[in-house]
Write a structure and sequence with these properties.
Layout: H1 8-23, H2 29-43, H3 47-60, H4 63-66, H5 70-80, H6 85-97, H7 111-118, H8 130-142, H9 146-158
Helix pairs in contact: 1-2, 2-3, 3-5, 8-9
Length: 161
Amino acid sequence: EIPAISDAPNSLQSRAWLEEIDKCAATDPLQAWERYLQWAKDAADDDEDFKRILHKSLQTLSPEMYKSDIRYLRMWMKYAGFLSISEQHETLKYLKVCCVKHIGMQYCFDLEVNCKRVGEMESHIGLDHALFYVAYATFLEKNRDFDGAAAMYHEGLERCA
C-alpha cells in the first residue's frame, strides 16, 4: 500500500519494489528494503515520502531476525533523524530494551516495566555495534547529559562494540 512518490512512473516503480520485497521474504527482505529505500531517497520529492517508506520497512522487518545486523541499525538511525528530540530518545531506549513483541511503531514510555509485566524477553537491537553507542551518547551530549553520554560510551566499550 506504500506507493505515492509523486508521479505515475515512480508510483509504478514503487509497486515493483514492493513486489521484489515480497519475493525476498523468505531469504533476506532487509536487502530488498535497502535497495528500495536507496531508490526512494533519490526519487522522492520530499523527506515525507522517504520517511513513510522507512517507517513501513521498520514495521515490516523482524527485530529478532535482524537485531545484530548493522544494516537494520542504520535504518533505525536514519528513521530517528526524522523524529523530534523526545521521540529520538524514546527510539534509542526502544532499541536498547526492545520488547520482542514488536507491534507497529508505537512508543512505549516505560519499556522495561512493560516488557517484564507482559513477560516478554528483551532483544537489544544493535547493541553489538559501536554505531548504537555513539549515536546514543551523541544524543545525550546534545542534550547536555554528559554523565549519561560517558556511561553510554563506557557501556559500548565494555561490550567490545
